[in-house]
Amino acid sequence: MSQSIVLFGPPGAGKGTQAEAIVAATGKPQVSTGDMLRAALAAGTRLGIEAKKYMEAGELVPDNVIVGLIEERMTQSDAMDGVLFDGFPRTIPQAEALAEIAEVSLVISIEVPDDAIVERIVGRRMDPDTGDIYHITFKPAPSEIAGRLIQRKDDNEEAVRTRLSAYHNQTSPLAKWYSQKGVLATVNGNQAMSDVAAEIAEVITS
Ligand code: ADP
Ligand code: ADP
């Protein structure tokens, strides 16, 4: 089985931000369930419409929907040598389903305390043309693209609180689960983006 990497951490930890360099270093394509769900929603598919209410409330989309998406994605040819999962798995049942379809050789957990998360999420902006991620304070966009930036509908304080409790209740137990399998590496996500990137680069090459 191919060797995949999981990027793990709370909402706003910096998974999407750090993914690009990991893709460049490993050649593995990024598989973000959040991006896939948003694409399904934008395309108006039944799956996207079903997922919408959970996403906007900040709750997890049911496991069977997510696992179905991943099973389909993993049949594509670019996934044969493993992928970089971003935002998946988020529950123990998802991790158990993943274990049947791909070998996870490394889980990179980006650790950020709750009190830093809300400011990161509420200030997050996205470039709809490129998918690039910015922040009003921590990573301002160049002025020529600033006008087209969008804010995700679930990037508000109320939904963030729900997402954080979903993370603590349903997702964070996975850290121990993967640690027991000997594949968990933790990095400090509560520092400058370049310092986080340097720690991740070390983990990947060691
Ligand atoms: P995730 O994919 O884990 O939800 P993102 O990569 O989208 O997180 O980052 C969330 C927000 O925080 C974005 O606006 C991003 O620019 C910002 N951000 C990411 N990493 C850092 C960091 N190390 N310090 C400050 N802000 C950061
Ligand atoms: P963030 O990293 O900022 O939390 P994502 O883009 O990963 O955001 O996810 C956005 C939303 O999509 C989540 O709040 C949840 O509703 C849904 N989602 C994404 N991935 C999963 C998953 N693996 N399991 C369940 N729901 C998911």
Topology, element by element:
Layout lengths: L2 E6 L6 H12 L3 E3 H11 L2 H12 L5 H11 L10 E3 L5 H10 L1 E9 L2 H9 L1 E3 L6 E3 L7 H4 L10 H15 L1 H8 L3 E5 L4 H13 L1
Parallel strand pairs: 1-3, 1-4, 2-3, 4-7
Antiparallel strand pairs: 5-6
Helix pairs in contact: 1-10, 2-3, 4-5, 6-8
The site of one adenosine-5'-diphosphate has 20 residues, from helix 1, strand 6 and helix 10.
Concise synopsis of the structure shown:
With 206 residues, the protein is an alpha/beta fold. The protein contains ten helices and seven strands.
Descriptive terms for the model:
206 residues; alpha/beta; Rossmann fold; five-stranded parallel β-sheet; two-stranded antiparallel sheet; 10 helices; 7 strands; 16% strand; binds adenosine-5'-diphosphate
Provide the spatial order of strands within the biggest beta sheet.
2-3-1-4-7
Largest sheet: 5 strands, parallel
In the CATH scheme, what's the topology name?
A: Rossmann fold
* CATH homologous superfamily caption: P-loop containing nucleotide triphosphate hydrolases
| Ligand names | adenosine-5'-diphosphate
Silhouette: globular
Number of domains: 1
What does this structure look like?
By secondary structure, the protein is of the alpha/beta class. It is built from 10 helices and 7 strands. The two termini are 21 Å apart. The model has no long low-confidence stretch (mean pLDDT 96). The structure holds adenosine-5'-diphosphate (2 copies).
